[in-house]
Structure to design on (537 residues):
């Protein structure tokens, strides 16, 4: 039986680091040939430049560097066929391109036809769309090329099949969200494979890039739509499949899909690890309060970066309960993370003494509460400056949505780990992490949440219970439902109106928040871009 051994190279590239990316491509190609005995190796979308390069694509020097990277692959003249993604300038048009390299030459080239321009994608800002299928031949096997969004549309796949493809290759940089893995397989690729009666090889990027996380999970669909091979999620891998005249033979059984909590937790870890490492920080530092948000953030940071690279700082005030300090110290010890205690009351007194003449005659309000938070943010940023560690902000999506956070205080930092995680999911993730090893004290999970900026303060003093708040926020932010539509789901109309007003008026805060890992379909920042000044109600 004729057989074509093909390698799936699920790799983690860095945007703009062309030389390093090309090194990774050449290394993987050599291993695919020498260790796996493969004849072809397939890499993800825009593998030479990393994805998404965004406005780097407007720079002529960047495009020249990408071209030089492609030339390095041509000059290598490896005896394995490489399928690589890169930008290609043809005249005045720039294309998102897949090139097939064999014996030091580009023997086939495909231009992406379907350019996504929604959510986190804005490819029409940079690329022109192709309009032709591409089928190339290796050792008698005919392979059709598509890129990412193409497989979500019927025509590019159908055109490949009509052009005589025995197999379809799909190069991807498909970012993670809570629902994406199953949707890719069950609702998209499986359907395309069955409709075209052609197996599809789906190769995905892995790793973190700013807010985005690419989850890998590359897979192969047989012509009947069955997933017969799947790579691990959130890890680099290089694996072999064999194309034969009767279909595709995988080298190992398909890896399992991850549970909801496991996939989110791993996405957060990868996002933190790659943001810290790719940007050259020496580790991470965060304020550990004894509350659930900082507890989960500390666990993620330690798992992502290693306990030796994480520093926790406890900054109690007069309103910090003893049990909060006890629980924070317990968790730091459980994780083996170094921690320091810096009482902030002397600093609060100093601030107050300077401001009292200005505030004379005015009642106390949230101003005095926020002083505590801003002092803590200032201390953390000073430690970051001195040590080279990145400050991790610990606010969650529920707080970011309604503005239950202090600008230049607990919002200060370089990366907001859980900014796209609703509070109810924060608790679920804490329970999940403890199911692996009990590192977060149970009392942190079970007691009512509090900012501890005032006597006996609890979150519910200002907000409805999170079991009520989060579904309202999800409906308004992620589903774009109006107040009447949300109220029709059984929520109190006055509460819905109040929450919507809070979301709208706090857009200016979110615009100043640090980036953070995107795990939902509608994260603040890249996905949801609302005007700060607006008369729409």
């Amino acid at each position: 039986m004729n057989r074509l051994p093909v390698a799936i190279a699920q790799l983690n590239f860095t945007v703009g680091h062309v030389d390093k990316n090309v090194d990774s491509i050449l290394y993987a190609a050599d291993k695919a040939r020498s260790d796996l005995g493969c004849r072809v190796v397939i890499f993800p979308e825009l593998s030479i430049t990393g994805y998404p390069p965004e406005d780097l694509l407007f720079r002529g020097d960047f495009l020249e560097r990408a071209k030089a990277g492609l030339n390095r692959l041509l000059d290598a003249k490896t005896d394995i066929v490489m399928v690589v993604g890169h930008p290609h300038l043809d005249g005045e048009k720039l294309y998102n391109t897949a090139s097939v390299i064999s014996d030091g030459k580009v023997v086939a080239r495909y231009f992406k036809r379907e350019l996504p321009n929604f959510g986190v994608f804005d490819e029409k800002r940079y690329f022109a769309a192709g309009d032709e299928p591409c089928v190339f031949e290796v050792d008698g096997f005919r392979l059709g090329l598509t890129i990412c969004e193409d497989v979500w549309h019927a025509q590019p796949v159908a055109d490949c099949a009509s052009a005589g493809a025995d197999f379809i290759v799909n190069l991807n940089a498909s970012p993670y969200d809570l629902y994406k893995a199953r949707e890719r397989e069950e609702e998209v690729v499986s359907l395309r494979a069955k409709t075209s009666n052609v197996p599809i090889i789906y190769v995905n990027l892995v790793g973190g890039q700013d807010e985005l996380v690419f989850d890998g999970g590359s897979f192969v669909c047989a012509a009947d739509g069955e997933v017969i091979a799947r790579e691990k999620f959130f890890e680099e891998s290089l694996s072999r499949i064999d194309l034969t005249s009767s279909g595709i033979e995988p080298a190992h059984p398909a890896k399992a899909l991850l549970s909801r909590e496991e996939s989110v937790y791993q996405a957060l870890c990868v996002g933190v690890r790659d943001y810290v490492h790719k940007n050259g920080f020496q580790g991470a530092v965060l304020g550990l309060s004894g509350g659930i948000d900082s507890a989960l953030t500390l666990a993620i940071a330690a798992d992502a970066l290693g306990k030796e690279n994480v520093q926790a700082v406890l900054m109690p005030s007069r309103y910090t309960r003893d049990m909060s300090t006890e629980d924070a110290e317990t968790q730091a010890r459980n994780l083996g993370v170094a921690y320091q205690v810096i009482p902030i009351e002397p600093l609060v007194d100093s601030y107050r003494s300077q401001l009292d003449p200005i505030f004379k005659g005015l009642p106390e309000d949230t101003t005095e509460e926020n002083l505590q938070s801003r002092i803590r943010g200032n201390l953390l940023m000073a430690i970051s400056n001195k040590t080279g560690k990145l400050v991790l902000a610990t606010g969650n999506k529920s707080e970011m949505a309604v503005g239950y956070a202090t600008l230049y205080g607990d919002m200060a930092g370089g990366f907001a780990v859980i900014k796209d995680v609703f509070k109810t999911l924060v608790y679920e993730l804490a329970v999940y992490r403890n199911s692996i090893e009990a590192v977060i004290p149970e009392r942190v999970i079970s007691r009512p949440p509090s900012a501890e900026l005032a006597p006996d303060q609890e979150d519910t003093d200002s907000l409805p219970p999170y079991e009520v708040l989060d579904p309202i926020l999800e409906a308004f932010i992620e589903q774009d439902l109006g107040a009447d539509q949300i109220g029709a789901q059984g929520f109190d109309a006055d509460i819905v109106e109040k929450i919507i007003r809070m979301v709208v008026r706090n857009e200016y805060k979110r615009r100043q928040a640090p980036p953070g890992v995107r795990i939902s379909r509608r994260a603040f920042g890249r996905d949801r871009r609302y005007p700060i000044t607006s008369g729409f109600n």
About this structure: The chain has a mean pLDDT of 94.
